[in-house]
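Checked the freezer inventory, then went back to the computational side. Two predictions to log before the end of the day. The first one is the construct we discussed on Monday; recording sequence and tokens without edits.
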Amino acid sequence: MSDATAEQEPPRESGGLVIGSMSGGAVAQGSDAEARDESRREARPAGTAGEVPAPPAVPPPAVPPPGAGGLVIGSMSGGAVAQGDRARAVDASVAVAGPDAERLLAAVRELRRDLLGEPDTGEADELERELAGVADEVRQTGRADRSRLARLRERLEVSSMAAAIGASAAAVSQAIAQLLG
């Protein structure tokens, strides 16, 4: 055994992790674990945040509790949990619903209409694909990937095409900024 190996501290047992129901979010367990939730979830109506769902008609099978230092989560529908030595949890999720989603979709529709009047270039084609992807994702799932929105916003800020189109590109960029915070 080398000196470097002899000096390393052995990993501690963490007791495990038990989750009853999980419909979104991120969970990590162990030394230096990191859980990061960057999802976009449909916003809940006012007053419903934190409500616990009704128990099932038939109780679930018994789940043994975790060992010492373990973690039990009854129901999780978003957020981030990390358990273990030096573990980190980051909840950077964004809800896309209601007026913000509608504002984004309206701005994207307007910009796509404006693009139709522009010369057919590779830049215009790429921008159209990004816009169509964002619109489809929001319509189908009520969510938009944070990295996709950030990439589109960056493209609009540096694009000569977006500068030529002007107001509609700025409206999309502003709607994205509203969602990303």
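The second is the one RB wanted added to the comparison set:
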Amino acid sequence: MAQGKNGSNGANFGFEEKMWQTADKLRNNMDAAEYKHVVLGLIFLKYISDAFEEKHAELAGDNYSDAEDPDEYLAENIFWVPPEARWTYIEKSAKLPEIGKIVDDAMSAIEKDNQTLKGVLAKKIRDSDKHDEDLGLSAEEIAFYDALAANNSAVDVLGDETLRLMAVELVGLIRNNATIDWTVRKNIQAKMRVSVKKLLKKYGYPSDMQLLATKNILEQAEMMCRDIAMVA
């Protein structure tokens, strides 16, 4: 990946709030399987866009530089991002029904202009699909598995099978306890947090990561409840 001036990979790979707000909007426009692929695309696009946008702003302020010249970025070992693949464009398109195609087209445009990226994301999606298939989980269960597996140490300590069992139990827990208005009912929220914490302890989830895992699980639970309400 492109290297920024600070020696990093040129992008802040923290899952920024704005990106996930955009991704959350997409859930109304596509099924779970397509949604997962689009989110992987969003991560990919955001990852390489940060360094590009920083350099673009720098060049735009230089009277002797051209911010739309791909060579300016190649010279700094930064991936060139065409207009239709830039984060500002993707973000503005979040509410459109064809957002899935927009993200696909953006990735294709980037791969076309940066040959070293060709096929990289497609391979990651194929690997992800194979892993999901091996786990034998539903789309909802996969979402909770991913929330648990976001902590690499949990994967190392507990392994796929234990995380798989936890994901299945979490879906049952959420379905049995969450109401449509649970996000505004403090007592239900507290009950849910207690149940999730007990489950994490039951399976020996790394104690130093339980707080973050609980937050991730509850955020996923909120989205799951919204999905249930939409089809109710």
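For RB: The chain has ten helices and no strands. The first helix runs from residue 17 to 26. Let me know if you want it refolded.
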